[in-house]
């Protein structure tokens, strides 16, 4: 039997609705860690279902490092003003801006990488794989390219406040929490050091 205290504890940790927390705990036979995994899995399914919805609102937030030499600004989009004006949504935009300032991504998602940038990376890594066995060259080359760009893609970076989750994971969780499609639409990072 799932207790109200268990549901409240899971809700406090995840911010997800009481009903979803209760269902996850029931499915996990009361195991809190398993319930968190179930909720994470469901957040991906929910986010995928909402990908065709139009983004008409959002929040712009900025982070300036206390040293004053690094800053970032982000546009976190949502479907409605109701969600965009939510205090937790605005805080999420701030957290993502802080992450951008710290991690300096170049792209929002993998699809943003241009063919020229891929070709330039391929050229560099081809030299590194020249002595590898012919049948493994392509696989090694692709692995090096994927690894190189993974660090530069915002959605694939581990979140600085929770390295066990990527930015994509926290956006999927927010989509589940707010019940709307959420997306990083744009960002910029500024640094005195370049």
From TrEMBL:
Residues 56-192 form the Translation elongation factor EFTs/EF1B dimerisation domain. Its main location: cytoplasm. The keyword Ribonucleoprotein does not apply. Keywords: Cytoplasm, Elongation factor, Protein biosynthesis. GO terms for molecular function: translation elongation factor activity. Residues 80-83 are annotated as: Involved in Mg(2+) ion dislocation from EF-Tu. CDD domains: UBA_EF-Ts (cd14275). It is found in: Cytoplasm. GO terms for cellular component: cytoplasm. The keyword Protein biosynthesis applies. Gene3D superfamilies: 1.10.286.20, DNA helicase RuvA subunit, C-terminal domain, Elongation factor Ts, dimerisation domain. InterPro entries: EF-Ts_dimer_sf (IPR036402), Transl_elong_EFTs/EF1B (IPR001816), Transl_elong_EFTs/EF1B_dimer (IPR014039), Transl_elong_Ts_CS (IPR018101), UBA-like_sf (IPR009060). Associates with the EF-Tu.GDP complex and induces the exchange of GDP to GTP. It remains bound to the aminoacyl-tRNA.EF-Tu.GTP complex up to the GTP hydrolysis stage on the ribosome. Belongs to the EF-Ts family. This is Elongation factor Ts. It comes from Candidatus Campbellbacteria bacterium RIFCSPLOWO2_02_35_12. The gene is tsf.
């Amino acid at each position: 039997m799932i207790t109200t205290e268990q549901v409240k504890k899971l809700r406090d940790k995840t911010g997800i609705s009481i009903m979803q927390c209760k269902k996850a705990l029931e499915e996990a036979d009361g195991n809190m860690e398993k319930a968190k995994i179930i909720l994470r899995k469901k957040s991906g399914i929910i986010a995928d279902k909402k990908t065709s919805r139009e983004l008409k609102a959002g929040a712009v937030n900025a982070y300036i490092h206390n040293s004053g030499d690094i800053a970032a600004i982000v546009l976190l989009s949502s479907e409605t003003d109701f969600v965009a004006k939510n205090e937790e949504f605005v805080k999420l935009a701030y957290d993502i801006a802080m992450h951008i300032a710290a991690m300096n991504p170049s792209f929002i998602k993998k699809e943003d990488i241009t063919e020229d940038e891929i070709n330039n990376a391929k050229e560099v890594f081809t030299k590194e794989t020249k002595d590898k066995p012919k049948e493994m060259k392509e696989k090694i080359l692709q692995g090096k390219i994927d690894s190189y760009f993974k660090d530069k893609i915002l959605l694939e970076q581990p979140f600085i406040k929770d390295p066990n989750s990527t930015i994509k994971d926290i956006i999927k969780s927010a989509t589940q929490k707010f019940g709307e499609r959420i997306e990083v639409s744009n960002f910029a990072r500024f640094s005195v050091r370049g």
